[in-house]
Design a protein that fits this description.
With 212 residues, the chain is an alpha/beta fold. The protein is built from seven helices and 13 strands. The protein is globular.
């Protein structure tokens, strides 16, 4: 029987080898199962080392043992632009009923998937949440407006995400995607007070990490 995930998480990877490993470990530590992780290196030499060493293969087996799926690959050419090409590719290939997004230098708490999967008990096409800005040590109160919400704060029905315009190699491509989502579906902000997605780097404010 083919595995039909409850949730797909999309992760483009470039550089940041230790943070990439941390991001993947955080996925494996989630308190809910039935997810699919699509993790793709942007022609990243560090990511290739994780593949060649067998580290990613071991993590994929751990995911499978838990009733999940971890799929990984490394692009033959670098596409750049904040992983826009990989994001498009992962949206197309997603098998989960819903899709979320995860930057490889950020961190998710163990209840992140279960927090966002509040949407499963509703008829909404998307829900959005607050996140936590590590360098500022404060929540980001999300709003449906440019520069007030990004990939990290939203969960979207995959069938709706697949109808949105493809991401483009320019700043703000996440807002253009979200704009299409909110104008072609129905959604709401969650009443959850949890901030399970931690943004670890904020432009002009630096990063809280001391690892590569």
């Amino acid at each position: 029987m083919e595995f039909t995930p409850r949730l797909t998480v999309s992760i483009p990877c470039w550089g940041r080898p230790k943070r990439t490993q941390r991001a993947i470990e955080a996925i494996l530590n989630q308190d809910t199962h039935g997810w699919e992780a699509l993790i793709t290196g942007d022609h990243c030499p560090h990511f290739q080392k994780l593949m060649d060493s067998g580290w990613l293969g071991q993590k994929a087996q751990l995911a499978l043992d838990g009733g999940n799926s971890l799929v990984y690959s490394n692009l033959p050419d670098r596409m750049g632009a904040c992983g826009y090409y990989i994001t498009n590719q992962n949206i197309k290939q997603a098998k989960g009923k819903y899709i979320i997004f995860y930057a490889n230098d950020d961190l998710i708490l163990p209840d992140h998937f279960s927090n966002y999967l509040e949407i499963e008990n509703t008829d909404w096409d998307y829900m959005y949440f607050d996140s936590y800005l590590g360098p500022l040590k404060q929540p980001r109160v999300s709003q449906l407006a440019p520069s007030r919400i990004g990939h990290s704060e939203i969960i979207v029905r995959t069938s709706l995400a697949q109808k949105a315009r493809p991401h483009q190699p320019k700043y703000g491509h996440d807002w253009e995607f979200i704009y299409d989502v909110i104008h072609n579906g129905k959604g709401v902000k969650s009443e959850s007070k949890k901030t399970t997605y931690h943004v670890m780097h904020v432009p002009n404010y630096g990063t809280v990490d001391k690892i590569d």
